[in-house]
Amino acid sequence: MIEAFQNINKAFESKVRLGIMAVLMVNDEADFNSLKELLSLTDGNLASHTRALEELGYIVCRKAFVGRKTKTTFQATPQGREAFKAHIDALESFLKST
């Protein structure tokens, strides 16, 4: 049973990071406000978790101006998609083994 935990990615142990990646796996991209509303997060909480995922290379952050306001969007990288899929596969494998 211990073997099943070897492929579980610690980056996704947080339900916030799990939620961010889940949204980005089914959408090409998501903007800051949409993620904040979908996951019921504060600005600071979302910013810290997206920064952590970005530092790992799992997501990219893009900032643009729409009128005079900044619009921040996030997108899962190929590396992030692969890591998240491996994490989900490991969880499924663990559940099937119990």
Automatic annotation (TrEMBL):
It holds the Pfam family HTH_34. InterPro entries: WH-like_DNA-bd_sf, WH_DNA-bd_dom, WH_DNA-bd_sf. It comes from the Bacteria. Residues 16-95 form the Winged helix DNA-binding domain. This is Transcriptional regulator. The lineage of its organism: Bacteria, Pseudomonadati, Bacteroidota, Bacteroidia, Bacteroidales.
